[in-house]
Design goal:
There is one protein chain. About 35% of the residues lie in helices and about 20% in strands. It is globular. The chain folds into two domains: about 90 residues, Phosphorylase Kinase, domain 1; about 100 residues, no CATH class. It has a five-stranded antiparallel beta sheet, covered by helices on one side. A hairpin with a 3-residue loop joins β6 and β7. The protein has seven helices and ten strands. It is α+β, with helices and mostly antiparallel strands.
Amino acid sequence: MILDWKLADEALRNIKVIGNENNQPVDIIGSVKGLKCIGIGTDAAVFHYHKTPNYVFKVYSDQALKKKEVEEYVYEHLKGSRYFPKLYGNGTNYIVLSFEQGVTLYDCLLQGIPITEQAILDVEEAREYVRSQGLNPRDIHLKNILLQNGRGKVLDVSEYIKKGNDQRWEHLLWAYKNFYHYISGKQVPLWLLEVIKHWYCRINLASFVLGEFPGRVSRHFFRQRK
């Protein structure tokens, strides 16, 4: 019996994901009717195919095929957890995951959709589950957390075999507890989110004083509005 997600295999062979240097997002060559790109990263792109609506296909560049093996390994260890997509299978250069409805926390900020406390608690529990499986929850940020009917789901597990704490989630958690109530339900301009991202990527974590960051953002925001 042919697995139903295999219906997308031929369509996926007609597109090519090209990696770029300097950690830039991949490029996509080719197109197929009914095959839609719904996400682009630095190692892979995610596609949804109209003939297989319950699945998504994460297609890797040739340079990132080892990342494919890593993600398969991690998803197998996280099997059964409601906090992550389900792994269904793989192809030569892709893995097959459950299609997850929802809005990323990044888009919640853009659209003024309130981020529930339960979603934040779900991410905390997801991180504890990852650790219980002998893995390391890293690279958890606004664009790889989905809000699903008030609950949280974590996407992209590609860094969970790396060591060390990148502190990205800890900083987001601090901002949610200390700052988010001022903007909950309000649309945050795209330019401001990108400014914050730019500043954050340039900071020296060793000397970073977290409490000073919101003030810097606020001063910039109000200066721009004058």
